[in-house]
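Morning F.,

Quick status update on the modeling queue. The single chain you submitted on Monday has been processed. Sequence for confirmation:
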Amino acid sequence: DNNYLDKIMLILPEEAPALVKEFLERSVRVVSLQLLISVRRRAVRLGVWWRVDPFRRGLLEAAIAYLRRGLRFKSLKAIVMIRDALIEALTHVLIRSARFMAYIIGSRLITKFSQILGRAPRTTEVIALGLQWLNTPPMYRTGIGNG
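Structure tokens below.
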């Protein structure tokens, strides 16, 4: 399916948050106190904590305080809201990681190439493919999908 490959090759920088968010929505299943604290610490350390929506930032702070008291969330609506806030904070954190972005892009690209390899690709191969794509000048990226 060459059309799918063409879409992948035209990933724009402004589409990166959507790719990361899509990945995180599939990956983040359980929201724990330890995860909330570590994401907040990393976001503050990287200086992206203030880019998170103020309501969601407050929600994360309140959830951390609530869970530290030993209490648990029973409301599914509250859990979903906290998970969404966590995903937004993680998106801001992970977009700054070139290695993670290379993995996300490489995993999109490798689906086509895994058929050629005849085996499941290793993580290092996925990251290497993503880094190669990121280092390819934009004017040449479309040529990869058309060829």
